[in-house]
Amino acid sequence: MEFMTGVKPEEALEIRDLLAEDMAGKTVKVNGTVHAVNDMGAVAFVILRKREGLLQCVYQEKDTDFDLKLLKEGAALKLEGTLEKDERAPHGIEIRIQHVEILSQPSEAMPLPISKWKMNTSLDAKLNYRSISLRNIRERAKFKIQEGIVRGFRDFLYSQEFTEIHTPKVGAKSAEGGANLFRLEYFHHPAVLQQSPQLYKQMMVGVFERVFETGPVFRAEKHNTKRHLNEYTSLDFEMGYIHGFEDIMAMETGFLQYMLELLKREYADALKILNVTLPDASKIPAVRFDEAKRLVSEKYDRKIRNPFDLEPEEEALIGRYFQEEYNADFVFVTHYPSKKRPFYAMDDPEDNRYTLSFDLLYHGLEITTGGQRIHDYQMLRDKIAAKGMTEEGLEQYLSTFKHGMPPHGGLGIGLERLTMKLIGEDNIRETTLFPRDLSRLEP
Q: What's the rounded Cα separation, in Å, for the pair 190 and 373?
């Protein structure tokens, strides 16, 4: 009988192991996938793709009994050779091949030129062959940076004593309401896919005081734009005992600062591959909704057409205004009109036409919506009635407030949008592993 006693030490080394000072001249073993083979005649360069990047291996027929012609792009190998330093190679090291074992061979040629630095392939082609296109070094780097964003979100909130929760994505009622709901039958009962974990995370403030979640949300919006998806990943948090919605903005600012430092420190390779210049979040200006509209209207001679919401062009102009006037990459727009905010948004006690809420714009695109919530039971019921809603399906949610809740608020961040802006893409599908939109359900 065999017993598992923990993680087994690996015989094959990773790039970080090979970079140790005392490794040069030693015989080493590595695993990897053939990314490219550059046959120069007397010598060939076999480029392996590993989880940390590319590793250059040098093939000379006299040093091995292996036939180079057997190596195909996409083959998985176990390779043994002598490690040497070479500044011209990726990471400044290369392996002089002595022995090769093929672990698996592809049965077809690659449908995309993934070994090229830029594939110069249409977005549709990349998405149709998504698991293949992501093997390209630049495509893969986008999602390493996205990993860093999520990791920063989690690590920072853990440091602020938040509890991570996981809420259901199928429910009887949605937090946002409206027509943009995916409806389904759930064992002969009507149900919806959740547009947000909002109701659940508010309920959990009464349990843990500070909670967060990263998970999918669903919007049945018939948008077909470069900034919308029908399923995306939301980074949500909710916190109790706040003094005002400004506490939520301050917490998000802290997250952004932490995340950007983490990317700079531990994701430098991915940032370099994509030539990313990180934004500055050391201080973020905040401006009232109505004031922001007035400022851009006056500076850019643009008539205010919708007094209750920001049009995409207005968001872009607000971003431009604060970059030109304050050299700010981010700007909080506060006090959105009550007409455009959901029932749980706290109205401004000084003017109930507006709410104690905000959006965060990053280079002119909304990436966050948040604010203070109503924590009083009767006030919630009155707001539901004032919006012409019914309490059906909200009984459990309302019951939580009937039994007492602290002043609280929170936000939701669109992960794919934030990634898109951070790396300088202009289509959200570029920063979504497997996009779901009006026309795409596969792969």
A: 28
